[in-house]
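Hi there. Long-time user, first ticket. I'm pasting a complex I've been working with (about 555 residues overall). I'd like to know whether the download I got is complete or cut off, because the file seemed smaller than I expected. Thanks.
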Amino acid sequence: MTTQTEFAAALLDAGLPCPPGLVAWNGSDPALRFAVYRNNVVVSLVDALADSFPVTRALVGDDFFGAMAQVYVTAAPPRSRLLAFYGEGFADFVAAFPPAAALPWLADVARLEMLRVRVCHAADAEPLPDAELAALLGDPGRLPLLRLVLHPALGVLRSPHAVVDLWAAHQVEEVDLSAVDPASAQAALVVRAGGEVYVVALPAAAAAFIERVQAGATLGDAFAVAEPGLDAADALATLLRWRAIVAIGEGGPEHEWQHE
Amino acid sequence: MTTIVPCASSAAGVAALPARAGLGLKPAHVRQILDTRPAVGFFEVHAENYMVAGGPFHEHLARIRAHYPLSIHGVGLSIGGEEPLDEAHLDRLAALLGRYAPQAFSEHLAWSGHGGAFFNDLLPLPWTPQTLARVCDHVDRVQERLRRPMLLENPATYVEFAESTLGEAEFIAEVVRRTGCGLLLDVNNAYVSCTNHGSDARAYVQALPLGAVGEIHLAGFARQQDAAGADLLIDSHGSPVDRAVWALYAFALERLGPTPTLIERDHDIPPFDTLLGEAREAERLLAARDEAVPA
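Hi, the file is complete. Here it is re-exported in full:
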């Protein structure tokens, strides 16, 4: 076992003894000094999660969140040096974390917050100019054959819980959850505009439709499997309003067309 | 390579950081900086925060870069690691440096990952001929891949290793001599480590290869006690620069002359103007050295 293998193992497992071979100039117990590293690692990673999941944290309080995040950190330390995305597995962990079972919506709030992080850092892209959009979308006969390429900084989340209302309630100074019914289903569109990330409530059918469009379905195919109550014109209007269409292709299987 | 070149100015086509005070760029301060264009010598960012595809971080940094010199400071390369460097991470660094053309690139004499896990901390290594050879190999590889000299930062440490046979300053001097890299003299780290290991900070600074210093870091520490009740200082970056660190900085400047100096703050971030006040204090000391050093 190498020095760093032993050191690394003891960092994340407080049950392991202080690694051998450490000394202090004054002969004091090196375990207390090693504990500084243990603490630095855990605190910095818990802080990274707290930064990415502020509403999840507010819903359970700092102490609960800190304890929950610490379990996650020691069980699943980052595999990447890019900490912005360290929360990718956190929502699944929250969903299976028994002490959080009383808040069944908590994991989806975490999913929404992780989606916000992804949307914030997604690639830049230029929306299609209005004139091109008008030309391409203006012919109802061609619409079913069109495939829209959506902006990379866009995502949707469908939840059996009121994730948008829960999130929005925490964006003001005085958080008031009295008007929020967490058990009502909601879908969210998460988009970036002017460097800001927005969370917008969306009808569930529209969210499913946008998801299929984003995955590369033609408008016709996405409409054919649409959920009851879909207002496709309204869903398209939402995409246009957020300047979320960056290219439009026509017909054929997904891989055969080129971006405009 | 035996010639020591001050690395802040030695890379072909790369201008040096100005010998002024700089500040770490914090997202909360970007708006004020862009709106008011304060007189700051340069800004520094952590490389890993900008290894994302797009969005506001890049937009802001591009705008800052248009008006200020830039230092890119890596925290995830794990140069002191037992494992080979992560080539994908080096590729990301090369792309970032290509995009922003910073005046300086620096990393730490520490390790931060092992066995596939990343610890987000700067972890210590023993000072031995074996670790020296490995660190030199890693610095060589970094400079070869990035096609520019790097600055290596002296660490803040809380433990020492029984197996160490070299002194820390001796180890660093040898890395600089063998690889031609520059030194990022973190004065707070020097003070923290020397306090934590019962040694003299001024003697440590004097034993470093001062001719290779391309940048200085100043930051605040937190104070704890070890098991024997001795001071154990923590490199916390969460408070103002301590008076003892200002004094050690002035001592270093007497030997270095004016040197680009960063005020580092990563926790409990105060309003921008508070950090600007610390930068002004550094500039006051820099100006004093400017007058004292003969042309």
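A couple of notes from our side: The domain at 7-292 of chain B is CATH 3.20.20.150 (TIM Barrel). Chain B has one domain: 7-292.
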